[in-house]
Design a protein that fits this description.
Blueprint: H1 17-32, E1 38-45, E2 48-59, E3 64-65, E4 71-73, H2 78-91, E5 112-116, E6 123-126, H3 133-138, H4 152-159, H5 172-180, H6 197-209, H7 213-225, E7 246-248, E8 254-256, E9 277-279, H8 280-291, E10 295-296, E11 299-300, H9 304-310, H10 321-324, E12 338-340, E13 345-347, E14 362-365, E15 371-375, E16 380-385, E17 388-389, H11 396-405
Parallel strand pairs: 7-17
Antiparallel strand pairs: 1-2, 1-16, 2-3, 4-9, 5-6, 7-8, 10-11, 12-13, 13-14, 14-15, 15-16
Helix pairs in contact: 1-11, 2-6, 5-6
Length: 410
């Protein structure tokens, strides 16, 4: 078990203590107003943890506090971890970004693209080209999510049993085959659409490596990095540290809601898109791997050039998500000034972003209002952990970004 601890005084690494106080006070206000059960926020500069605050409860009914070793469902913050795993295979020459997906998953041969109609009357045509591995990493594959309710292909996903992104009772291979049977929303590489792509990428990792996704991540990433609590389930020993999951109620408060089935042993379906649990210590280790461009404590998982490639905007012509995308990112509702790399968002024009930030800042968020980012310009890493699946009224993350920006004086 790892526990995140403050290692240095904030002012020693150039952080504004008064701005940190404002950050903590604002986050605490969300708890006092009943909009969050509790939270952990941590900042490190130059790799040294300079600020860790825990506040509120990890289990409201039981009155259990958030602690430094609390475990969190990180949902879509799983995606960058899966992306790193895929890039490790790319470096080993076992996978290439421009490989056609059907080389590894034959069910994706001869994809078809939506043309018109709805339901049984949907009309499709052959795609001009294959889905490629880079399309999975950049969410430009043409795949989608069933819960969008905004396109006829979304409805086909729901009709196929994919309302929760996976078919209940199946394993990853079976669910991915169901994705493959649906038409694409658009030609691969022509739009950005946040989707089930990373689940497909997880299955590619299994096929290429010959290992299940959980074993590959444990042996190749979690173990080497000392991510001692990270995984797809919790043991009986870990379970008391797992935060309960809440959802936003109609009155603006919170209520318990079902979450990932982390207890009860290894899940049948291993979601590389959103299935992980981790502690703040674990995710600090992962962020440090990225900040240090692929190496941590003498362990190198990726070459510096690969991390540079991962954290660079890959949308054609340097476009941002508003210009090239059809869906909002978790915490950037209009996507202005934000591009996308290989598994992470990337700030390309700070003047146009919703919250102040630095160029080149990259990271991602999760469905339960967790988030992380790495700011290379300020040598800063930030993570925020809580457990609320929000409605549109909960806007914690943009406020967090604004407050953190003030912590490092210009």
């Amino acid at each position: 078990m790892g526990q995140l601890r403050q290692e240095v005084d904030p002012d020693e690494v150039g952080l504004d203590v008064k701005a940190l106080d404002r950050l903590d006070e604002t986050c605490a206000r969300y708890v006092e107003e009943g909009r969050l059960p509790g939270f952990l926020v941590a900042l490190a500069r130059g790799g040294r943890v300079a600020h860790v605050t825990t506040h509120g409860l990890r289990d409201v009914a039981a009155g259990l506090p958030v602690e430094a070793d609390t475990l969190w469902r990180i949902y879509s913050m799983t995606k960058p971890v899966t992306s790193v795993a895929a890039l490790m295979l790319v470096e080993e020459g076992r996978l290439a970004l421009d490989d056609p997906l059907d080389r590894y998953l034959p069910a994706f041969a001869n994809p078809r693209v939506y043309e018109s109609g709805e339901g049984a009357d949907v009309r499709t045509r052959p795609a001009h080209g294959p889905i490629r591995i880079r399309h999975l990493l950049t969410h430009t594959s043409g795949l989608t999510f069933a819960f969008y309710h905004s396109h006829p292909v979304d409805a086909l996903y729901r009709a196929a049993g994919l309302e929760s992104s996976v078919v209940p009772g199946t394993d990853l291979a079976e669910t991915v085959d169901v994705y493959a049977a649906q038409p694409l929303q658009f030609e691969p590489g022509t739009q950005w659409n946040y989707s089930v792509s990373t689940n497909v990428l997880g299955r590619v990792i299994e096929v290429v490596s010959g290992q299940s996704l959980d074993v590959f991540l444990a042996e190749r990433i979690f173990g080497p990095l000392g991510m001692t609590d990270a995984g797809f389930c919790v043991t009986d020993e870990q379970a008391p540290r797992l935060a309960e999951l809440y959802g936003e109620s109609d009155d603006g408060g919170i209520k318990p809601v079902p979450g990932l089935p982390l207890r009860g042993g290894r899940p049948r379906l291993l979601s590389g898109s959103g299935g992980m649990v981790a502690s703040a210590h674990d995710f600090h280790r992962f962020m440090e791997l990225l900040r240090r461009r692929g190496e941590l404590d003498g362990v190198r998982l990726l070459a510096p050039e690969t991390v540079d490639l991962m954290t660079r905007n890959h949308l054609p012509g340097g476009a941002d998500l508003r210009a090239f995308g059809s869906r909002p990112a978790h915490d950037e509702p209009n996507n202005d000034g934000v591009g996308f790399g290989l598994g992470v968002s990337v700030v390309i024009d700070p003047e146009r972003t919703v919250s102040p930030t630095s160029p080149g800042t990259y990271g991602w968020s999760g469905a339960a209002t967790t988030t992380f980012w790495v700011d290379p310009a300020r040598d800063l890493t930030v993570q925020f952990m809580t457990q609320v699946r929000p409605k549109s009224s909960l806007r914690v993350i943009p406020e967090l970004r604004r407050l953190v920006h003030d912590v490092v004086p210009n």
